[in-house]
Amino acid sequence: MKYTYYPGCSVKATANLYQDSIDAVAPLLGLELEELEDWNCCGATAYMSVKELMSFAISSRNLALAEPLHRDLVTPCSACYTVLKKTNTYLAAYPELRQKVGKALEVAGLSYSGNVKVRHLFNVVIDDVGIEKISSMVQRNLEGLRVACYYGCQIARPETDLDHPDNPKSMEALVIALGATASYFPMKTHCCGASLMGTEEELALRLCKNLLLNAERNNADVIVTVCPLCQMNLDVYQGKVNKLFGTNFHIPVIYFTQLIGAAMGLPFKKLGLHKVAMKIKGEPKRILNG
User: Fold this and answer.
1) Residue 41 CB: number of other CB atoms within 10 A?
2) Res 199 pLDDT > 90
3) In whole angstroms, what is the distance from residue 136 CA to residue 175 CA?
4) Average pLDDT in the 211-225 region?
5) Domain that holds residue 101
6) CB contact at 8 A, 288 and 268
7) 76 lies in a domain?
């Protein structure tokens, strides 16, 4: 199965551990991810509220580059997924916007007809590979590992390819298929604060604290996510959460591809699991590292 791959900026920098696991797992799942040549930043969700037309134009450039390849455009980043999908929706719905963006693309010698399907890597793994096939590839049973499945808000709303916008269960089904336990986690589609961490830090930290508290109260050993911003906020800023609110959280936050890779028996470091800020220790490390 071949796809056009749009990594996004985070996966190439702060979330490179995500890319480590994607590189390790994708070929084993039969996914051929061909990186889009000369891609640019999608503009991220924050830019949409600052310079909307400019944001649509730079996002459309990626869609225009992908269109001649006649494949689904797949991204592992929930923010990129949201922006690219929103751009598709708005260009189809608003002719005046489509005309303005079209003129901007013409300057770069490009055009876009709206024929690219934007997909999140998580949905590709669940829908195209399938949980049954992944289950058959398990080499290291993850029994005893309690996982809080965190989808985040951007992959779930406003448009979603998940099984449900508020109470999706596909990640839980994946976790169970890998031999682990899906902990009760009712805040699984709540916001972590995302880019608010750069403008309203205390508010973002409070949102992260609520998520971490929910995971802790339900005895999760790790939180698994599909989003680079979610992973960074909950993992890297966990120390700041503890300092601000007097908590003592130590919950590693990892990517769904890392969990799959661990269950497939791949080495801990090859999956980038050693790179998480909240280090994986004790029994969870023994389970994930074999």
Assistant:
1) 15
2) no
3) 13
4) 98
5) 2-121
6) yes
7) yes
Which residue among 90, 121, 152 closes a domain?
121
Indicate the burial class of 205 (C-beta count within 10 angstroms; 0-12, 13-18, 19 or more). buried
Within 13 A of 151's CA, how many CA atoms are on the CB side? Answer: 29
Query: For 226-266, what is each residue's pLDDT tens digit?
Result: 999 999 999 999 999 999 999 999 999 999 999 999 999 99
What tokens does 150 get? 């965190």
Contact assessment for residue 40 and residue 59, using Cβ atoms and an 8 Å cutoff: no
Tens-place pLDDT, residues 143-181: 999 999 999 998 887 777 887 878 999 999 999 999 999
Neighbours of 136 (CB within 10 A): 9
- Give the Å distances, CA to CA, from 35 to 66, 76, 210, 270, 273: 10, 12, 36, 20, 23
Q: Is residue 203 part of a domain?
A: yes
What single-letter amino acid sits at 137?
M
